[in-house]
Each structure stands twice: as structure tokens, then as C-alpha cells.
Amino acid sequence: MEKKYQVFISSTYSDLVEARVKVRDAILSMYHFPVGMELFGAADEEQWQIISETIDSSDYYVLIIAQRYGSVIPEGCCDAGMSYTEKEFRYALEKGIPVLAFLLDDDVAVKPEFIETKNSDKLTAFKTEVKTGRLVEWWKTTDELAQKVTASLYKQITRTKRPGWIRGDVVDVEKSLKTLTELTEQNQKLVEENKALLMENQSLKQQSKRCPKLVIKVAGDVPNEGEKDDPLYGRVKNIKTDADNAIHLKVESVKTSSVEAEYQPVSESDFIGELRGNVSIKEIEEYNAALPSEDMLEKYLKLYQMHHLIVDHGIASVVCVCNIGTAKATDISIKIEFPDEIRVLDIYEVRKLKEPEAPKKPKSLQIVAYERAHRSEMVLEKTFEQFGVLNDIKTMKLLDLSTYTTHNSPFESIDIIENMVSIEIKDGIVHTRLSSFRDIYIVPMKRGEFKARVELMCAEYENPEETELTFICE
After folding, report:
1. Is this prediction's pTM over 0.85?
2. Residue whose C-alpha is closest to residue 381's, from 365, 394, 367
């Protein structure tokens, strides 16, 4: 049965009137149906519904480009700023319609009014997009264009089969409808029988084969009775799990302005009131020269920030390994690889962290000035408290590490190395039960959404199962 094909012709209009006529006549000479903007009138949003439906019913799409970008969709409409020609091209690609593109050779002389000036950048980008991923034809005359369209259509029709159109009297419609109805009934009957067999087969498999199913949960850890005074606990509110099992972490920041203030150079104008005249210019110069360099101070501030981000804002956490399957999982091995944006540490190592050593600094000239202005020891101590000098030296209550035990036994163990948590459960987990692991300390470093890669393996699995934990740091 010989088919007739509908060919959509797309181009700018005023500059390519003659070219469109030539292409239309060439398609008609092939006994196929050309359609294009001549059927639609002015291009606007109201006409787009008709244009898109026409493209939907077309078998091939012919695009002709010269030196104009074409009418642009006005502001306030969908795809504002894009030409109607480009919108048609994108729509044809989206619908999977074969595109045949024909570009005017750059050496061909064009009337000035047919050369794009306002949207030249958009025209260049459009041409580049058209040439990407497909072969295009170049033409110099309208006759050459018509010949190339004819040749390209012949090749495309041979290479890509499209629905096309056939005469109604070629097919026995009544016989075809009867056959189609019979086939539909047979197909429906087979579908129902297949569905019943699948359900029966699935039921048999469930009865004959039981298997474990391991999942991972991460939550905030609650301190035991002996850990209530541990400052590393108590931030459970900073970790939450939503309905999609995404883990939300609260990101905190560490301010260093008060630390930086202690290392700022001084000048004679800083000594006012009763302090004026109690230190010399030479002493001020020697004080400023004795301050640490900017590079040394910057390195210290980075260490200070990292230390307090970990110690003051990390979250004591617990990892739960759950078996939601129908059989016991044995010889379990789990790896959780955290992203760089989320640090994971052993809580016992965090307890051992020490405050980074601050750069040495000379004795405060403010103190020197007060010592000279006030000789009374009582007044001196009061002044020091006022300026926060005595508060710079605080005694920290050290934790008794002997009160803590590690989660490590012949049957269960957890290791935290290089931002990876490794868990081993030799004895396994009975289905519907879980095993929890403490001593994990999570530190969110920056805001954003990040993924932790999880690998789950047990003796009952043929291959490791891979999944992800989603962390949303806010």
C-alpha cells in the first residue's frame, strides 16, 4: 500500500517566501502533503495550539534558515523572547519527528532588510543548536534548495518508517474492524490468564523463598545515665528525619571576632582618660611588632574554627541496621561512605581533642596602663575582670574516659576511618529486628543536600546491595 506523508515546512516568512513556494511545489511533485504557516496566518500564542497539533500529525519536519531569526514571542507569554520558528523546531524534536534542516550558505548575498540585527546572537545560537547532532544541507538558490529537500525526503522516507496516510478504499474496513475486535477479545483473555498465573507464581515464590532485607537508619543519640554531663550529647534536636527518610542536619557557624580582637595592633589614641600617658610610643611600637604575623593568625583562626565546629556543634548519632525482610540475615557487612561536606568521627576521638595552641602575644598594654594608673591590687583585679582578662583563663572539667565503653564484641564491631563507617555483625539479625551502633559523631560542614553511599552485604545476598542516605544540611 503506497503511503502519502505530511511534511511540515518551518521558516521565517518574509525573507523566504520564494524558497517556501519552491519547497512546497517540490513536495507536491512527490505526491506528498506540504503544510506550514500559510495555513495559520499570523504567528501568536492563540495559533500555537493549531500549529502544535499540525506538527503532531506530520510525518517529517523541514526547517529552512536564512539570515533572520524571525518573529519573537512577546513578553508575558510562554517562551517569551524565543522566535516562533525556534519554538516549532524544539517542539518537533520533543515529539520525535524526523528533522531535515537546510541552511542558507553564508556566502550568498542577502538584502539588508533580510539580515538580522536585533537578535543576531540568538540566530547564531539557534543555528549552532540545529547543526549539533544532525547532518544539515547548505543551499545557495531556491532551485538548489528544492532539489536537496526532494533528495533528503526520499532518503528519510526509506530510512525512517512513519505512519503516513493511505486511501480508505485500499483496506477492507469492515473486515479489519472485525479482525481487530476478535484480536482484542483474545488479547484481553490472555492478559487476565497471565495476570492470574503471575499472582499464583508470586505467591508460590513467597512461600518457598524467604530472604532478609537490610535497611539503614541514622538518628540522634540520647545519652545514658552516666553520660548526661557529657557536653557532646544534648544536640539531638539538630538531627531529624522527614517523611521521605531524608536526614536534616542543623549547620552552625563559629565566630572568631572576639579572638581576632585580642591580636589587633594598638595606637596612642586607644589610651583615653586615666590611661593616657601611661605607655610610651616606643612601648606601643614594640607591642605591635611582637604580635603574630597575619599568616600565623589566619592559620590559628582556621584551626580554632574547625575545633569549635566539631566540639561545639557536632551531633552524637546512632546508626540502626534493620532487617525488614522475611528471614534472618547472617554475617552482615556494611559500609557507609560519607561525603566530604559531612565529617563523621569516633566520639571517643572527639573527647580527646585539645584546644589549638594560640599564638603568643605580648602583655596587654591596657593592663600595663592600668597597673601604672592604679597601684592597688584590689582595683587592679576589678579592672581585669571588667576587661575580660581573668576570663581568658578558664579551667575545663575533664571527662573521665574510663566511664565509657566501646561498641566492640566478638559478634559486632564498628570502625570509623577516613569518613567511612564500617559495621560487622557476625551473629546476624533476625527479621523484624534491628541492631544499633553508638559512638558516631556527625559534623555538618556546609549547607546543601548531600548523599552518603551505602553498601549492604550478608551471607544470604548474592551480590552487595547499594543504596544512599540523603542528608539535607540547613
Report:
1. no
2. 367
